[in-house]
Amino acid sequence: MTRLLDLPSSVLTTLDRRDLVDSVRESEGRVMAAETIGAYQPLLEDVTNAELVAGFGADLLICNLFDVDTPSIAGLPECAPDDVIRTLKELTGRVVGINLEPFGVPAGRLATAANASRAVALGVQFIVVTANPKTGVDNASIAASVREVSDAVGDAAMVVGGRMHGSGMLAESGSRIVGVEDVRGFVEAGADMVLLPAPGTVPGITAEHIHHLIDTAHDLGALALTAIGTSQEGADPATIRAIALACKQAGADVHHLGDGGYSGISAPENVFHYSVAIRGVRHTYRRMGWSIRR
Q1: Is 86 in a helix, a strand, or coil?
Q2: For residues 141 and 11, what is the distance between their CA atoms, to the nearest angstrom?
Q3: Structure confidence by residue, pLDDT tens digits, 6-27
């Protein structure tokens, strides 16, 4: 499979589970993901937050708080609910995924087999099984939901599992958010990619600690995503570059910026700064400038 770095929009928007995993692996730690909340008013009224981060260089777009029962993304042109994801893919030319959660959220956001199948029918290419703040979701629940989602989507969508912050679980916070056995549990449950907090984003999360967990994931045949989910996606460029290089040194396959820079989106310029740090201006400008008609 060609590395994701070299794929135009006409290919990115059609990648299935195996091709997406292989193209990310071939990119050697140079894939950018950005998470946005489509339920919120966009930073720019008539441009979706997802379009904005795509314009600054994101390869993978993650829609947070997306309800498969009532699909909606603020700022999209008028379209039928069942066409929301496909319209976003047409406008951005990017790989689009959503978050689903084990419990503590509305029915259409739960990580169930029915919702995963519904997401695939809507055009979703990957599903992230994780937890938003204050839900109290633990790693065992995530692993169980990963298994259910993975079995449901088959070869249609990539599955990511893990946490980027404590999510209200004091017993699994700080350096105890995710451990070696948790990583093993996510992968054995069917996760193609393990989600981990980026070094420096959570107290006690060092590059060495995350490096060990990423090595575990890689040894098990899975990929790893390091996430900024503690509002540092709105930090100054120097902080962003420091986190980016720490994640690269730790072995991350995908680099993620969350939706808390502003309300529902990273500071858009930080997608650019992070991208330049991990893959230079050539690949960053290429992704930014590549026509979605190619």
Answers
A1: helix
A2: 34
A3: 999 999 999 999 999 999 999 9
Helix H or strand E segment including 227? strand 223-228
CA atoms of 97 and 38, how far apart (whole Å): 12
Does residue 171 carry a pLDDT above 70?
Answer: no
Write down the residue that tokens 């980016």 correspond to.
Answer: 244
Q: Token digits for 259?
A: 């939706």
Ramachandran category for residue 167: left, alpha or beta (phi over 0 → left; psi -120 to 50 → alpha):
left
Instruction: For the chain, give percent helix, strand, coil, nearest 5.
Output: 45, 15, 40
Dig out the tokens for 267 from the structure: 């500071």
CB neighbours of residue 159 within 10 Å: 29
Query: Do you know the residue count of the chain?
Result: 294
Helix 84-92 × helix 113-122 angle, to 10°: 50
CA 206 to CA 83: how far, in whole Å? 41
Max Cα–Cα distance, the chain, nearest Å: 49
Amino acid at 102: P
d(CA 36, CA 98): 10
8 Å CB contact between 92 and 292:
yes
Strand, helix or coil for residue 151? helix
From residue 189, give the alpha-carbon distance in Å to each of 118, 160, 166, 185, 192. Answer: 20, 11, 21, 6, 9
